[in-house]
Amino acid sequence: MSAWTEACNSTEGRPSLLIPSGTFFVGPVTFKRPCKGPMVVQLQGVLKASPNLADYDSDNWVVFQYIDGLVITGGGTFDGQGASAWPHNQCPNSQKCKLLPTSIKLSFVTNTTVRGIQSINSKLFHMLIFGSKNISLDSLNITAPGDSPNTDGIHIGNSSNISINSSVIATGDDCVSLGSGSVNISISNIACGPGTTNGVRIKTWQDSNVLKAWDFAFEDIIMNDVYNPIIIDQRYCPYAKCNDKAPSRVRISDVSFRRIRGTSTSKVAVNLVCSESVPCKNIELSDIDLIYKGVGEATTAGEAATATCLNVNGISTGKQNPPSCI
């Protein structure tokens, strides 16, 4: 930390923190404070997290906080060493669970670039961006086994002007997930899989707060043996029982699904289930071509994919395979 503090306080040129080739075991650490100018972190080696959960007093491992003009690059690796922690993750079974540590957290940072790094085997999320703006993520390689729980690649919340480009994200859960307060998020040229069972999805809980979610454009996407290629789920419930006393109060509107093609392993390839209290508005299906493969399901030869809509208003144009339900 003394090297970070010295570089952060430097006013000469563009200071940098170099982590050279080699393997370094690092406990929970936070790099923060407004620096005198832009900072570069050159990660060339491998940072390994402690596998012992008792070493963490929060749900973070490496945190960058309150920094403007940060660059993280160098081709190195963040290794969360999550395998020993995954059996302790109770979040897939209960909402009242203790969160395991996220590998990399960008909190209240601005004008930041993360380029050419790897993150492997996070205990929970690989990367979390919160309260930040003007962030560019490029050429990342994020991996964890397909059955590793809640190892989302990148989660974004209360942040704006975020671009994610030219990366491979192969984890046990969502590729990229957006929480409330996410504005102007651009995601392009990303290869996702294998853990998530969904393609492009908008989900809300029942009996939720009054919120709005709008202006989504899902375009030029190839699905390769994906369960639920296109889905809006306003009855989301991953547990045996959820609070279903009232329908979702999240108003979804202005969503376009354009030029999406490939193969579906679920017979319902387009599944749009919106709230009965605030139906979805201005939903567009354009040039959809999804072929049903039926992997793991009892199928009849030549059986076609289908589409289901509930409480949806919108339009469909161009090719529609399966036939549109709008």
TrEMBL record:
GO MF, one term, reads:
polygalacturonase activity
Pfam assignment, any one: Glyco_hydro_28
User: What keyword terms does UniProt attach to this protein?
Assistant: Cell wall, Cell wall biogenesis/degradation, Glycosidase, Hydrolase, Secreted
Q: Where in the cell is it found?
A: Secreted, Cell wall
Q: What is its main location?
A: secreted
Q: Which GO terms describe its biological process?
A: carbohydrate metabolic process; cell wall organization
Q: Which residues form a coiled coil?
A: none
Q: Does the keyword Magnesium apply?
A: no
Please state which protein family the record places this protein in.
Belongs to the glycosyl hydrolase 28 family.
Q: What is this protein called?
A: Polygalacturonase
**Taxonomic source organism:** Acorus calamus
